[in-house]
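Record type: monomer structure entry
Structure origin: computed from sequence
Chain ID: A
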Amino acid sequence: MLTQPCQCATDLALQQHGKEIRIIDAQKQISDKSNSSTYIVYTIRFQDKVAKRRYSDFDSFRNCLARLYPDVLVPPIPEKHSLTDYAHVHTTNRNKDNQAMVDKRRRMLQRFLVRLASHPRLCHEHVVHRFLDGGVPWSEILTSPPLSTLDNDDSNTFLFPSSSTSHDLKNPDPKFTESERVAKEHAEFASSPLDRSQRRLLRRLGDLSNDYAELGAAYNMLGLNESEQVAPKIEKIGLAADTTCSKTQHLVHELEVDFAEHMQEYAQYTRIAKQVLRQRHLKHAQLELIGTSLQAKRTSLRNLLETEDKALRLEADMSHPEPPLPQATVTQEQQQQQQQHRQSSANNEEEEDDFDTRSIEDGFAAIDTTHIPKDSTSDEGSTESMAYPSNASASAIRASRDRYRKWSSPRKLLNAMSYTIQGMMDVDPEATRRNQIAKLRENVKQLESAQTQVREELKNMSENIQRELDMFQKQRTNELRAMMVAYARIHMKYCEESVLAWTKVRDCF
């Protein structure tokens, strides 16, 4: 779901002065619900607008933008649980509200807002404008359109939500298949080897800074116990060690600000690109699954229509029977034979049709139980000892015995019950078939409409994602170049200052 670009004052200002967004302050506040709970409020300033937002507001804000624009690489924000990994490792305070973590979040959140303002689509989103407006609480923005409709918006999971997640594309786009492979490789590399190495380096540089501090203190103590000629020179060694300690601390800080934070954002961007490509994969899978279901429905409909045509032709043939033979050509003897034959066939068909459907008591309907002897000692269920009325004919007795024998098998009883239930459920197979045809036609119509809609959505999503990937490639190239230049510059400056400090010590000796 996409909102139309607005023409509010903030929208126009962002297009010209979006890079001027600043987070000018970060203050700790005590929660109203619990006096022991605290949180950080970040103050955003953009021209004459000032807004105060919590980190949770930023997190919710970004999630909403990602759902509103599933085909956009929404810029990342600092992660919740891994921020302290890049904090000053030489400090002992590792609480979530320590100043180093707060400053880092403030910098990364400011870059997040600046990137939103420079994005060609997100800068026009009115939700962004309202987030920068301090007069509107974030809770109120969440409960108003378009964010209030996100819970009911199933556009990203339209049809087959569970099947599309594990569906292998039959006709994948080679261009996006390659993009998915590259994004996966970059995400794995940026999140594992590079990230681990960078963290380990910062941790060891912090330890090195602490070691130089202890070394400087030790040399200063040694100089106190030496002669006046040697003591000043030893103190200069201690001073050089202290200088190296401070320079190393400054090196760690600059590496965090100008390199590690940007590298962390680069790793997040690669994961975001991977997720956006996954959204396109799901949309493509939905299109293929709709096509498969549509083909199956059309086949079923075609089979039912053929059955309906055959039934209509049969009904038409039965409504116009063949004319009977002339009466003069049939002798009286032949008529009697035909009549006997029809009667015999009718009796056989009646017995066959009625074999498994009549009630158990039907076999004894003609029996007069009042004439059954009371002293009968035969086994219950034996047809040989069963008494019949004296006036019963032989055919009636034979029919009764046959009907009794037909219920002797439980399978026959179950078959009769199944036939009866089936007859109750489907009393009119023609009407059932016509209802199925009507339902299938409606399903085919809906699937055809859905196929057209999803095909158009996939086309638009593919075009937007390709533009996003092209923009990300240029952005990544520029940022990586700036990061590597900053990395080299920081180390060169550190080495030059360290060499200068130790050169003075050497000249002194």
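Annotation 1: Residues 182-309+428-509 form a domain with the Substrate Binding Domain Of Dnak; Chain:A; Domain 2 fold (CATH 1.20.1270.60).
Annotation 2: Confidence is low (pLDDT under 50) at residues 82-93, 153-160, 352-385.
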